[in-house]
Write a structure and sequence with these properties.
Shape of chain A: globular
Order of helices and strands of chain B: HHEHEEHEEH
Mean pLDDT of chain B: 87
Radius of gyration of chain B: 25 Å
Number of strands of chain B: 5
Structural class of chain A: mainly alpha
Low-confidence stretches of chain A: none
Number of domains of chain B: 2
Number of strands of chain A: 7
Strand content of chain A: 5-15%
Oligomer: heterodimer
Low-confidence stretches of chain B: none
Number of helices of chain B: 5
Largest sheet of chain A: 3 strands, antiparallel
Strand order of the largest sheet of chain B: 2-3-5
Order of helices and strands of chain A: HHHEEHHHEEHHHEEEHH
Structural class of chain B: alpha+beta
Strand content of chain B: 5-15%
CATH architecture of the largest domain in chain B: 2-Layer Sandwich
Distance between the termini of chain B: 57 Å
CATH topology of the largest domain in chain B: Alpha-Beta Plaits
Helix content of chain A: 55-70%
Distance between the termini of chain A: 50 Å
CATH class of the largest domain in chain B: Alpha Beta
Chain lengths: 364, 179
């Protein structure tokens, strides 16, 4: 009995870590977005919200946002489908939240003789799971577009569906190369495979073995988040988008879903291409530098290093995604479609062929 | 588009380099600022109510009536400013000055700032240099039209702006304005 309680506790701990990490990071991203865009544009950014005169670089603005969203009028359009209209933001946020579950944030942790893999859910088809959840997220957007009884919202929902199709196919095709190279659909196995060294010194990260797939995946991933430069479903300057009829916290949940998807895409990118939780030259018992130098580390220190490496990489990747979002102008709808179908997709197929050839040559 | 531009990637990277350079440069200046290098500024923002852009000495701000040494207005109620005012926002009622040397004085001098266009003609027209627009006060607002009407005593109490252009007297708050 005690064993099962401990197992339950461990499972709960794994889920809680991922859940709190993603939720808090998603909330914090509103602050990151405001501040980072401000600093990039020689401004200061939102810094007025204060508690007892304490401003903390505007860190209370997400809190103020939440209070504002929760106290606003919860509006229903007269001809809207009330059930679907209410359901849509929840669907959006839910699938964005659970998508992170199979992304590993560390290697195994040994507690009291138990082997705990550091990911919320151990799935041997982890990649497919993440993509399934990301694709299901678009149902929330389409539902919102349909249930609003608003032509612009419907247009936005339709565009979201088209864009998601474009992005998901490009994403799916671009990671086939990664899957072929590391020989697994389990994200944990892929990250472990990236710990091996090429020629004794270069970590075999995805960006080294699959540089083309990295660029394609990143581009398609940004498209999947529905943010600028691929914000055609929103299209603020033309159709306002699928959430045109939403107000209050329901609108906030759509915004939140975008941020959560950003976190998921950042997590996916680093897991598949930037070594996930891998620290270069760090094995299970410590550092093994090329040239024979070794540094032994206790197990907990290794795990701590891996988790902090994962968190750091996610943060840097999010910074980079924000940099792209605040640098590039948006693609027009037809341009986004053309880029997706005529550039990303064929190039992904080319990448698969090249990888197959390379594998044939390297591993006979 | 050139071939390189059609390919997007080169242009995207050059754009990202530009914004990243701004980001890190500004970040460094912000950090230097917080470490005591007050001349380093990471942003061009002027945080308005606390910080202000220096005003030009020629700025036409809220009017004031210049006082004589005995405290009475220098205005002799010649009606020049009321006549020249294109917005017709000045209303003067003339009266007798206690000093026999001075013929007249304004008993009432009312400016409706809701109508005023801040052209400065009143200042130029005045033969006695009795009205000036050098208080440096810009933040006068009200929830009602009557709150925009400034009377003689309020205008007399105002002081000219300091050498930096900042107002030296407090913003006169109209009767109906609740802060």
């Amino acid at each position: 009995m005690t064993a099962t309680i401990a197992d339950l506790g461990i499972a709960f701990g794994r889920v809680a870590f991922v859940m709190l990490f993603v939720l808090n990071l998603g909330g914090l991203l509103t602050w990151v977005e405001r501040k980072q865009s401000a600093i990039m544009q020689d401004r200061i950014g939102a810094n007025r919200a204060s508690i007892l005169g304490l401003r903390l670089f505007g860190l209370f603005h997400p809190l103020a946002d939440a209070i504002k969203m929760l106290t606003k009028e919860d509006f229903y359009p007269a001809r809207a489908d009330r059930f679907l209209f209410t359901l849509a933001p929840f669907v959006s946020v839910f699938f964005a939240l659970v998508a992170f579950a199979s992304i590993p944030f560390g290697d195994v942790l040994w507690i009291g003789g138990r082997e705990v893999p550091l990911q919320a859910v151990t799935l041997n088809v982890g990649i497919l799971y993440v993509f399934a959840m990301l694709s299901l997220g678009v149902y929330g957007v389409m539902m919102a577009g349909w249930a609003s009884a608003n032509n612009y919202a419907l247009l936005g929902g339709q565009r979201a569906a088209a864009l998601m199709l474009t992005a998901e196919i490009a994403i799916g095709a671009s990671i086939i190369g990664v899957v072929m190279w590391y020989g697994s659909l389990d994200m944990m196995d892929i990250v472990r495979g990236q710990g091996e060294l090429i020629g004794g010194w270069l970590p075999q990260w995805g960006i080294v073995t699959q540089p083309l797939a990295f660029i394609l995946f990143l581009t398609a991933g940004i498209a999947a988040t529905k943010r600028i430069p691929f914000d055609t479903p929103e299209g603020e300057s033309e159709i306002i988008g699928y959430f045109v009829e939403y107000s209050g916290m329901k609108f906030g949940m759509f915004a939140m879903a975008d941020f959560l998807e950003t976190v998921v895409i950042a997590g996916m990118t680093i897991t598949l291409f930037l070594g996930g939780w891998q620290v270069p030259y760090l094995g299970r018992d410590g550092f093994h530098f090329p040239g024979g130098l070794a540094l032994g580390l206790p197990h907990l220190a290794v795990v701590g290093l891996q988790i902090s490496a994962f968190v750091l990489k996610v943060l840097v990747m999010i910074w980079f995604l924000m940099l792209i979002r605040w640098t590039l102008p948006r693609f027009r709808y037809d341009q986004a479609m053309r880029l997706g179908w005529l550039a990303l997709f064929p190039l992904s197929i080319l990448n698969v062929v090249l990888t197959a050839l390379l594998l044939l040559l390297v591993r006979p | 588009m050139r071939l390189g531009q059609r390919f997007y990637l080169v242009e995207v990277v050059s754009g990202l380099a530009l914004t990243a350079r701004h980001f890190f440069g500004n970040m460094g200046r912000h950090i230097a600022h917080s470490l005591g290098r007050t001349d380093a500024r990471g942003a061009v923002t002027i945080q308005y109510p606390e910080e202000r852009r220096p005003y030009s000495p020629r700025l036409r701000s809220l009017h004031r009536l210049v006082r004589r040494e005995d405290g009475s207005p220098r205005c002799v109620a010649c009606m020049m400013c009321e006549t020249v005012c294109p917005a017709r926002c000045i209303y003067i009622v003339a009266g007798e000055h206690p000093n026999p040397e001075i013929e007249k004085v304004c008993d009432e001098f009312t400016i409706d700032l809701g109508k005023c266009v801040f052209c400065g003609f009143c200042v130029e027209a005045c033969p006695e240099d009795a009205i000036r627009m050098d208080t440096g006060i810009l933040e006068f607002s009200s929830f009602s039209r009557t709150g925009m009407i400034y009377t003689r005593d309020v205008l007399l109490s105002l002081e000219p702006a300091g050498p930096d252009g900042r107002p030296t007297s407090a913003v006169p708050i109209p009767a109906d304005r609740t802060p």
